[in-house]
Structures are given as structure tokens and as C-alpha cells.
Amino acid sequence: MDISINGEKADITLESEKNIGEILAGLEYWLANSDPRYNEGFRLSGLSIDGHVIGADSLEDSFNRDIDSVDSIDITILSLAELVAEALLDSRQAIDEFNGCDFAGKRVFAEKWKTSPAALMISEESPDLYEIILNTFSGVGISVDGLTAIIDERLRELEFPAKELNDMNPVITEIAGRLEELPLDIQTGKDRRAAETVSFFSGIAEKIFRIFKLLKIRGFPVDDIRVAEILVSDYIGEFNDVIKELLQAYEQQDSVLVGDLAEYELAPRLRGLYAALNISSTEAA
């Protein structure tokens, strides 16, 4: 039996599988070991048996079909990154629909959007973005122009993670410098600037973590990177712990600890992580 995935013949050796359902059940393991794009998950989006497209109403019956009665299977799947990109594009279109609503329509738009497939996907994979979109559609968040800019940024991350990372260089330089200045800002009463620095840094760190995950999905050799002799995955874990400690100290108004963590821990860690990831992704691109 010939098995194709997204139109390409798949080198799958059947062992004890007896029906179509068992073949599909083993697909996750095969994909995870053959294509890094699917390591973070995938979903079945289409199935054809012997050239006949299987509809949703007959999908379950097809799972029970004996493989001895089948000559060919064509499976269509989407990676997690592709599914998220699709959800973001759908949300982009939802913004246009929202703008076209009258006052009454805008009042109920958020509830309608919450039940859409795009909203469900984004709530699972990007809870922070889900809240931003929902708040805008509820009339209590950022402007639709601001929301559009955020969605476009996430789409660029998905499509060109290495370029998006490289383009962050001036931002990294600025925020690392501001982290080193944070103790002085706190001491001299520049509370607004200090709050902006903490918020700005938190967002930049989250963006780096997102891009790291996307680079892995796209097959960039980032798992072997070492930062200060520490494997990058462990380094990110430690980095994230220090970020949580900073945010907790900031909420508790522990200005001494906030200043020390920002200047002596987070600024050098940010520079080191960014440099290591950027060099690796640029060389592999």
C-alpha cells in the first residue's frame, strides 16, 4: 500500500497495523522522528483513500477499514506552526469584520469570536495574545491598529523566525542598557521609567522564548547551543526563574533586589542568550 503525506510519498513501514485508524495512530511517532516541523504537534486536515476524498461524515467508518482492501492513502496534515498561522490570519480578517460592525454589532462581537476555531487555537497556544484580542473586541483593550501590529509581528515570527531574531539586535542593546540603569532609576524616583523597563524587558524575553521554540520547530540546530557552558534549554529555564524572581520582587517593591537582579543577572543573561541564538540561527539560515 502506498502512503503519501501532503502529496509526497512517505517511507513508512507497516508492522502490525490492521486498519486505517491504526496507521493514523502511529503517524505521530513517525512524524516526530522524521520531520522537526511536527515535533510540537500536528492535526489531520484531510484524508483520501484510493483517490476518494473522505468527508467528515464518513471519517470514522474509514478508520475501521482493513488495510488489505486499500491500495493508497493520501494524508493531509498541518503542523502546529501552520495551524497557529492560520488562526492568526483568520483573526486578522476578524479585525476587518469588527471594524465593519455598527455599535450594536461590536458589543456582541467578542462573544462570537470566542467560539471561533481561531480563538480556540490561539487560547491554547498563545493565551496572552488571546486576552489581547478578546479585550480589543470587548472595547477595553488596545486599538485595532495596535492589535493588527501585534498579530503581524507574530506572523513574521512564524514565517521568518531567524530574521525576526536578528532584527531585534538594537532592541536588545537598548533594553540591556536600561536594565543596568534600573537601580539608579529606582533610587532617583524615576518610577515611570522603571516600570516601563520591567514591562519592556518582560515582553522582549517572551518574544525570544517564542522564537527559540519556532527555530526548533523549523529544524534549526538550537538544542546543542551552549550559553556560558550551559545547554540553552537549561539556560532558558534558569533565565525564566530569574525573571519570575524579578517580577515578584517588583510587585513587593523590593527595590534593592530588583536592582541587583536587573543589573547583575538579567542584563548579562539577556545579552548572552540573544548572542548565542542569533549566531546559531544566522549560520544555519
List key phrases describing it.
two-stranded antiparallel ribbon; single chain; Ubiquitin-like (UB roll); globular; five-stranded mixed sheet; 10% strand; 13 helices; 7 strands; 285 residues; alpha+beta
Shape: globular
Tell me the helix content: 55-70%
Number of strands: 7
Compute the average pLDDT.
Answer: 91
What summary fits the major beta sheet? 5 strands, mixed
Low-pLDDT segments: none
Order of strands across the main sheet:
2-1-5-3-4
Number of domains: 2
Structural class of the secondary elements? alpha+beta
Question: Helix and strand layout, with pairings?
Answer:
Blueprint: E1 2-5, E2 8-9, H1 20-25, H2 27-32, E3 42-49, E4 52-53, H3 59-63, E5 72-79, H4 80-99, H5 103-114, H6 117-125, H7 127-137, H8 144-159, H9 161-166, H10 169-187, H11 191-217, E6 226-227, E7 230-231, H12 232-251, H13 255-284
Parallel strand pairs: 1-5
Antiparallel strand pairs: 1-2, 3-4, 3-5, 6-7
